[in-house]
Design a protein that fits this description.
Length: 114
């Protein structure tokens, strides 16, 4: 089985409720660290402008490149639901490694200050 995060992107208004809901669902503390991001995409020049908001997170890839790039093998994919998980206690952290971020085509890995 492979779980995912579904929502209607066309209804995104940049309210960041998806970030709050994710933190609530996963019992994460309030603060800047988040597993979801809302990015503003701007294209064109005046008067032909285009602005869209994009909510993204880990894509829980079928074959995660971040997992293969991790030198301490702390990233794994759960067989029961396909979720990519990081053992945060053993992770070397962004300042000491970040090879998973370099390998991820979606720039999904994030770190908290805990």
């Amino acid at each position: 089985m492979q779980l995912g995060f579904y929502f209607d992107q066309t209804r995104c208004c940049g309210c960041f409720t998806c970030i709050v809901a994710c933190k609530d669902w996963n019992n994460l503390s309030a603060g800047p660290a988040s597993w979801r991001r809302v990015t503003t995409l701007e294209k064109g020049t005046f008067p032909d402008l285009f602005v869209a908001l994009l909510s993204t997170s880990c894509h829980h890839c079928a074959e995660p490149s971040c997992m293969n790039a991790c030198p301490v093998e702390v990233i794994f994919k759960r067989k029961k639901d396909g979720v990519v998980v990081v053992d945060r206690k053993k992770c070397l952290g962004k300042d000491n490694c970040a090879l998973c971020l370099e390998a991820c085509p979606y720039d999904a890995p994030v770190w908290s200050r805990k």
